[in-house]
Amino acid sequence: MFPADDRPAASLKVTRPDSAILNEAIPVFAIGRSNNGLWIAHDCDSAAGGAFLSKAAAVRFAKRSGGACALMFERDGLELDGTASPAHRSRHLKAGLETAIANIKTRVYNWVRSRGRAASGAT
User: Which of 1, 13, 22, 77 could disulfide-pair with 17, CB 3.0 to 4.6 Å?
Assistant: First the structure.
C-alpha cells in the first residue's frame, strides 16, 4: 500500500479492454484506491461511479449497477474526478464521509434497538 502522497493516480478515463479480450456487451467497472484512501468504482462505459470506504462496498456497487459485469482492478490507483481541484475533492470527500458515517450510526442504532427488544421479549 502506498502512503497517500506517494500513490500514483490513474486517469478518470479508464479504457475497457480490447473487444478481442472482452465482449463489448459486458459492462466493465474499474476499481481502485484514490489518493484520499477511498475505494473508487467507475463504469468504463459511462460516468457512473462512486467512492466507498471499503473495497467490498465498491465491488458490491459495481455488481449491483452492472449486473453481470467484469471487474478490472487498477493497481496504480483511480480517481473519481481527475480534473477537479483539490478543494473540490475535499468537499466531495467530506460530504461522502458524512453520509457514510450517518448511515453507519443509523445501522448501529437500529441494531442496538433490535437487540434490546429481543432481550426484553426473552424475559
Answer: 22
Per the CB < 8 A criterion, the answer to whether 88 and 82 are in contact is: no
**Residue ranges covered by each domain of the chain:** 1-83, 84-123
Following DSSP, what letter does each residue of 58-100 receive, concatenated?
Answer: HHHHHHHHHSS-EEEE-TT---S-TTS-HHHHHHHHHHHHHHH
Other Cβ atoms closer than 10 A to 79:
23
Read off the pLDDT of residues 7-27 as tens digits, 9 standing for 90 and up: 344 444 667 778 888 888 888
Query: What pLDDT, on a 0 to 100 scale, did the predictor assign at position 17?
Result: 78
* Residues contacting 103, CB < 8 A, separation 6+: none
